[in-house]
Amino acid sequence: MLDIKFLRQNLDQVRRKLAERGQTIDLEQFSALDARRRNLLQEVETLRNERNTVSKEIGDRKKRKADAADLIARMGEVSARIKNLDAILEETESALEAIVMTIPNVPHDSVVRGTSSEDNPIVRTWGDLPRLAFPPRPHWELGESLGILDFTRGSKIAGARFTLYRGAGALLERAIINFMLDLHTGEHGYMEILPPFLANRESMTGTGQLPKFAEDLFKIEGLDYYLIPTAEVPVTNIHREEILNERDLPIRYVAYSPCFRAEAGSYGKDTRGLIRQHQFNKVEMVKFTTPETSYEELENLTANAEEVLRRLEIPFRTVSLCTADLGFSSAKTYDVEAWMPGQDAYREISSCSNFEDFQARRAAIRFRREATGKVEFVHTLNGSGLAAGRTTVAVLENYQRSDGSILIPKALRPYMGGREKIAPA
RNA sequence: GGAGAGAUGGCUGAGUGGCCGAAAGCGAUCGCCUGCUAAGCGAUUGUACGCCGAUAAAAGGUGUACCGCGGGUUCGAAUCCCGCUCUCUCCGCCA
């Protein structure tokens, strides 16, 4: 969420910035509620002050055995008024919060203004597209004919958008996950985390999934637990309501987790194959930084994600999301898109974002500045490093051969017992 | 699942209705002292929100709230009552 004081003082600027995202927000309503809240607060605090002072006087009188009945009667009324005002104040505050919690982050100045993903500038392209002497097949065909991906049985067990991996397919995805974790912990300086795969309402609110995007989540019936849509949720919430030491920053975590997404509203989109699933595996990088370094950290976070594809020798390009394409909590996002020959397209395989203090404010993640002793909000960042399911897709499609077999990328062979290819049984 | 105990500041730990935002100790920071280190002495040591502050911010001042969370009793609650959450111990079950 945005800072209420900042909002109050920069209404026009915020309105303009949000318009660039294609959002219109009822900032008049915000102003009215904010003013009302402050008036009520003052009134109620004055009454509390009176009650505190007079209650002391009552105590003194009683000690002296003097009569205090008049004061007690008066304070009875004051307390009743406080109770009344408190209820109104609470209503006002939750109405105000309801607005503020649904206002998206303000895009960073370097983010290009646009109206759709068509306007996302390409910032980097890497690798030569493979020139195949045969028409490339999509991964679902390859996976089924090799007997390593079973979409039919995945549907039988759970439903649409669930897939069963078998044999070398299961091994390949596990190898990809292990390779990525080893790379980020061993060479990029991240600490590995294995988090809970369910999270509660507070955690979901802290990172911004709630209250606005409840329909995208799977919820455990009757309990306040949600299946995580990304490891970003549990890992960012590690430090919820904490004050960190400046010298411990930046903190860099990397976590494997399955991710669960309801994919409401995406009917008919990417219905075949592994691209869009209700459950998929992902390795996620999360950072907590000081405000001064967060954009530098975003650049190398993105580079860390790209490095996976470089090592796997899979062509990719990186785009910077324009204002219209930016996620709710993000101030700036790079998407890394891997080349997928079976689809003749680049497809998103990582999304790296700087949330600045947007999540930190919601989740109360702060740090104490050594120079001044003051507490400030940290900046949080995260990025996929990478989506494992889509990485499996990229490997299958880029490394396919005319006989339908798959060459294993060199970087993955140590993770697959030295195996060099996946061939039809 | 059954039985019991507990939750207070960075930590340990007092506090059972007003003098408690909270003793004491530890730790930390600053200063003094000291050949260095240790010891000693002194001071400081939470967060949030509102208001005041010469304009924005800060310094500073002031008020309110916070003793796991939510409600209740009372003129007044860390303290009494109810509900919840979490932690610990024992039993059962289980990977």
- Regarding CATH, which class of the largest domain? Alpha Beta
Major sheet summary line: 8 strands, mixed
- Number of spatially distinct domains: 2
Please count the beta strands (DSSP E, at least 2 residues each): 17
Q: What does this entry look like structurally?
A:
- It is a single chain.
- This protein is α+β, with helices and mostly antiparallel strands and 425 residues long.
- It has two domains: 4-100, Helix Hairpins; 117-422, BirA Bifunctional Protein, domain 2 (2-Layer Sandwich).
- It is built from twelve helices and 17 strands.
- It has helices spanning 4-9, 11-20, 27-63, 69-100, 139-146, 151-157, 168-186, 201-207, 232-236, 294-312, 358-363, 388-398, and strands at 122-126, 149-150, 164-165, 191-193, 198-199, 226-227, 242-245, 251-260, 279-289, 316-320, 332-340, 345-354, 365-368, 375-377, 379-387, 406-407, 421-422.
- Strands 1-10-11-12-15-9-8-4 form an eight-stranded mixed sheet. It has a three-stranded mixed sheet with strand order 7-13-14. The protein has a two-stranded antiparallel ribbon with strand order 2-3.
- A hairpin with a 4-residue loop joins strand 11 and strand 12.
- The longest helix is centred in the N-terminal third of the chain and has 37 residues, at 27-63.
- The chain is elongated.
- The two termini are 54 Å apart.
- It binds one RNA strand of 95 nucleotides through residues 9, 37-38, 41-42, 44-46, 48-49, 51-52, 54-60, 62-63, 68, 71-76, 78-79, 243, 364, 366, 373, 375.
